[in-house]
Design a protein that fits this description.
17 helices; alpha/beta; three-stranded antiparallel beta sheet; 43% helix; elongated
Length: 378
């Protein structure tokens, strides 16, 4: 059986989740060591797992430059394992023709299956499973930017008295600032300051942990246990010792709870805050985000950073190829309905990212006003 070369600071850790392959693993701590082995055992090598991070970029380039000079070495597939999601690392992997890009330690059976096909010389397997991030370099069309500047500017002038009334009511309703400012991730994972009228108590963020059990998007425990028979037999290394992959998945799932967080009849919301939230008046300060170019009138909702980092998989990353927006497709489709699932929201975001146009934006804007008056307190 052909061997698999693991290149990284802790190469054995790369091989541990893949024990089910029963393949010999060659542990190399740098590209030079890997190249030395390759030159002598090129016909006996099935694949290379490379631990790519900001610190190992040059080593990765050096390895690939040398491999791409020789056809027999270039034919050996390289699979990148990264400790975190990075657009730069994804683009680098694509540029140097890596076959796959995985996030460690969330390596699951899919990488085992893929490497198994490589070992078995399955020539019909798909190549380049790395998500195409070219769309994340998208620039806002002139028509959309013009619509944003004109629309946001006019709305701010018209609604200026409303801004002043809301600000006064917030100040009388509860102690704290008038505006709520948080970091959000928009198009291409760009981070910016996101403005809203404050509708919660000033200690709202610290209360999230106590309310996670009431999250509408929380998945039941039985959905958190995936591939238990396989995962329970795979060991992972932690600082405190070894745990099974199943235990690691369950712990991570419960810690993160869900990508989206929302609680029915949220006790953190102030009395006046409930009114401006149900009428979407709390969103009005985002018109200034639109003028600044952080957002568009229509797009996918910008996400808090802890939510955005959970949507970096191949399946969902394309939602960030669209501009961040005040209103969007899912808001006018099912806003306020308890039946709106996390998957539906993300799917509608991707639909908009792939199909947005001038006429679709106009259609969404026309539907936004009636959709803004929610029928239930969600």
């Amino acid at each position: 059986m052909k061997s698999i070369i693991c290149v990284g600071q802790e190469p054995f850790a790369l091989a541990r989740p893949l024990q089910s392959l029963n393949a010999p693993f060659i542990m190399c701590r740098d590209s030079q060591e890997a190249l030395s082995y390759l030159y002598e055992h090129v016909k006996d090598t099935a694949a290379i797992l490379f631990e790519l991070s900001n610190e190992t970029v040059e080593a990765f380039k050096q390895l690939r430059y040398q491999m791409m000079k020789q056809p027999d070495l270039e034919a050996i597939p390289v699979i990148v394992i990264a400790p975190f999601f990075s657009l730069n690392l994804v683009r680098l992997s694509r540029k140097f023709k890596a076959k796959d890009f995985f996030i460690y330690p969330m390596i699951n059976t899919s990488i085992s299956n893929r490497i198994a096909k490589i070992i078995n010389d399955d020539r019909n397997m798909n190549t380049i499973a790395i998500p195409n991030t070219d769309q994340l370099n998208w620039q806002i069309p002139l028509w959309k930017r013009a619509m944003d500047i004109v629309g946001a500017g006019l709305l701010i002038l018209i609604l200026l008295p409303v801004f002043m009334i809301i600000a006064l009511c917030i100040r009388l309703d509860s102690k704290g600032p008038i505006f709520y400012i948080s970091k959000r991730a928009g198009h291409g994972f760009r981070i910016f300051d996101f403005y809203k009228f404050r509708s919660m108590r000033v200690d709202a963020d610290s209360a999230v942990k106590d309310l996670k059990g009431q999250n509408q998007y929380q998945k039941p425990d039985d959905e958190l246990i995936l591939d238990e028979a396989i995962a329970s037999n795979t060991l992972l290394m932690e600082d405190k010792g070894y745990i099974t992959e199943h235990q690691a998945r369950k712990a991570k799932a419960k810690a993160s709870a869900s990508t989206f967080f929302k609680v029915e009849n949220d006790p953190r919301i102030t009395p006046f805050g409930a009114f401006i939230r149900n009428t979407s008046l709390d969103e009005l300060p985002q018109l200034f985000n639109v003028l600044k170019g952080d957002m568009s009138l229509v797009g996918n909702r910008p996400l808090p950073l802890y939510e955005a980092e959970m949507l970096t998989s191949d399946e969902w990353v394309l939602r960030f190829s669209a501009p961040a927006g005040i209103t969007g497709l899912w808001q006018v489709s099912k806003r306020g309905q308890k039946s709106m699932s996390e998957e539906e929201r993300k799917s509608l975001d991707i639909v908009y990212a792939r199909n947005f146009s001038f006429w679709l934006d106009c259609k969404i804007l026309l539907k936004t006003l009636p959709a803004a008056i929610q029928r239930s307190k969600v």
